[in-house]
Amino acid sequence: MRRDIFILGIIIVLFGLFLLTIFPPLISSYVAQTEPLTKEWSFDVPALNKRYIILSLEQGDKVHIKMRISGGNNDIEFYIKDPSGTYVRSPSKIYSYYEYSFTAGSSGTYELWFDNSFSLLTSKNIYLELTIKPEATLLQKTYSIITPIGVLIMIIGVVIVGIGIVSKPRK
């Protein structure tokens, strides 16, 4: 009987270990991707021309724009369109230094437009710093009940092994 209890305990411990080692893909932690991405550009927008930059954003991404405009009167018309073509920022002239922030309302392609079509002679130089902070998204959402069950089974197995070791043999 003592030997049977001991063997049963060993089998239960091994089963708990089996659960913990066979199912590691199901055991995951919540990992949030929240590192901001910063990109810098410097480009010219010739007189009587427009230029745009395309951003691929996910819903909830936070975008911060800093720009410096030089050339002519240090001005440019600036606007942003969302994936449906709706203005996130309506067209208007900005001067010298400008900052703007917005949160992506939907996933898709956003366009940042720099319009110098009003200028007949002077091109504009744009220095742009763009920071995108992703919405905290879970890279792995899986959680498994197998981890706590496997640990519990191992504890029960160790207790049974202990009982098998300390129990007195029957005569």
Placed side by side, the strands forming the largest sheet appear as 2-9-4-7
Can you count the beta strands? 10
Largest sheet: 4 strands, antiparallel
What is the helix tally? 2
Low-confidence stretches: 25-31, 138-143
- Helix and strand element order: HEEEEEEEEEEH
- The CA-CA distance between the termini, in Å, is 10 Å
The chain-level mean pLDDT equals 83
- Strand % is 35-45%
Give an overview in words.
This protein has 171 residues and is of the alpha+beta class. 25% of the residues lie in helices and 42% in strands. The chain is built from two helices and ten strands. The chain has helices spanning 2-22, 146-166, and strands at 32-33, 37-45, 50-57, 62-70, 75-81, 87-95, 97-103, 108-115, 124-133, 137-138. Strands 2-9-4-7 form a four-stranded antiparallel β-sheet, with no helix packed on it. Strands 3-8-5-6 form a four-stranded antiparallel β-sheet, with no helix packed on it. A two-stranded antiparallel ribbon has the order 1-10. Strand 5 (75-81) and strand 6 form a beta hairpin. Helix 1 runs antiparallel to helix 2 (146-166). The longest helix is centred in the N-terminal third of the chain and has 21 residues, at 2-22. The radius of gyration is 31 Å and the shape is rod-shaped. The termini are close together. The relative contact order is 0.33.
Features:
single chain; 171 residues; alpha+beta; four-stranded antiparallel β-sheet; 2 helices; 25% helix
Q: What would you say about this model in short?
A:
By secondary structure, this protein is α+β, with helices and mostly antiparallel strands.
